């Protein structure tokens, strides 16, 4: 845990251990294999040259980094965005809150939340703020503004709400008030964890994640030929199941970015699920590699 001006976020580890909620048919996720490294695995495009290996489901423009990292490994990707971001009910209230209130911390838990916050912060006249972020992906959005006030000053040891809440430092002389600009669909885990420690949390639902309503039938037919679908949110997974169908999804392996998306898969009755212990772009890519290697072994 760190509170400093060092914005590298380099302490966020890229672990090799992967877990799944249910036993995977190939046995890779069993207790004897939990420490196995996947970093040396390189997969060439499988089967037909036109058949994708993995489907990337984040909103348009948010799949580029993962796609590039996978394609240099010889993994054929197909981007099928399942979600899109809309303004939330509190988006218009954010600038006034920043102008009129003083916060010990602004806690930001996704790149989308960071983007919306930056807009509101500029509209408020760029006031002084102290930023805490959940992980490297969110930090990157803020760092790229080159605005000194927006550089993150805290990142939890593990990029999830379960660690964020307990680890956020209290400030001597602070007022104990936290601003939490979030998705309208975000859970209350972070909010509850902070309030249990005595913080006052001002949650503002500044954006919402909506399901993509229409996907071309030809796109869906092609996407069903993939062996793995990569999901970075429960919303994307639910949208995928809605568009592709539960049976088709059950035949694929779900590579989830973290435990939240993996729990959503479990609730939907999906058994072929892999996720990293510590969420992040690097571990997400490793999880996708592992999922593809598992399906190759089955064949």
Automatic annotation (TrEMBL):
It is an enzyme of class 4 (lyase). Pathway: Porphyrin-containing compound metabolism; protoporphyrin-IX biosynthesis; coproporphyrinogen-III from 5-aminolevulinate: step 3/4. It catalyses: hydroxymethylbilane = uroporphyrinogen III + H2O. One of its GO terms (molecular function) is uroporphyrinogen-III synthase activity. InterPro entries: 4pyrrol_syn_uPrphyn_synt_sf, 4pyrrol_synth_uPrphyn_synth, UROS/Hem4. Keywords: Lyase, Porphyrin biosynthesis. GO terms for biological process: protoporphyrinogen IX biosynthetic process; uroporphyrinogen III biosynthetic process. Its EC number is 4.2.1.75. Residues 68-285 form the Tetrapyrrole biosynthesis uroporphyrinogen III synthase domain. Gene3D superfamilies: 3.40.50.10090. Catalyzes cyclization of the linear tetrapyrrole, hydroxymethylbilane, to the macrocyclic uroporphyrinogen III. Belongs to the uroporphyrinogen-III synthase family. This is Uroporphyrinogen-III synthase. It comes from Picochlorum oklahomense.
């Amino acid at each position: 845990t760190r509170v400093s001006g060092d914005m590298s976020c380099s302490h966020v580890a890229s672990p090799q251990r992967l877990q799944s909620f249910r036993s995977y048919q190939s046995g890779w996720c069993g207790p004897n294999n939990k420490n196995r490294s996947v970093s040396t695995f390189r997969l060439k495009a499988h089967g037909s040259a036109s058949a994708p290996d993995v489907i990337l489901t984040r909103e348009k423009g948010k799949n580029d980094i993962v796609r590039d990292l996978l394609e240099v490994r010889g993994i054929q990707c197909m981007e099928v965005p399942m979600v899109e971001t809309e303004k939330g009910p509190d988006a218009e209230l954010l600038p006034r809150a920043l102008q009129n209130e003083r916060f010990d911390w602004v806690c930001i838990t996704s790149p989308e939340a960071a983007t919306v916050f930056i807009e509101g912060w500029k509209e408020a006249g760029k006031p002084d703020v102290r930023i805490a972020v959940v992980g490297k992906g969110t930090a990157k959005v803020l760092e790229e503004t080159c605005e000194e006030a927006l550089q993150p000053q805290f990142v939890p040891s593990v990029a999830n709400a379960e660690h964020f809440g307990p680890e956020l430092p209290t400030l001597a002389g602070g007022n104990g008030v936290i601003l939490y600009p979030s998705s309208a669909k975000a859970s209350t885990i972070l909010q509850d964890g902070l309030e249990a420690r005595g913080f006052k949390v001002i949650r503002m639902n500044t954006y919402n994640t909506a399901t993509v309503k229409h996907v071309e039938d030809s796109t869906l037919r092609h996407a069903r030929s993939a062996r793995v679908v990569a999901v970075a949110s429960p919303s994307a997974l639910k949208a995928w199941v809605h568009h592709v169908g539960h049976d088709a999804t059950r035949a694929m392996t779900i590579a989830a970015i973290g435990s939240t998306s993996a729990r959503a898969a479990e609730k939907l009755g999906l058994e072929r699920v892999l996720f990293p212990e510590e969420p992040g772009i690097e571990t997400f890519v490793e999880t996708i590699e592992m999922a593809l290697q598992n399906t190759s072994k089955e064949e």
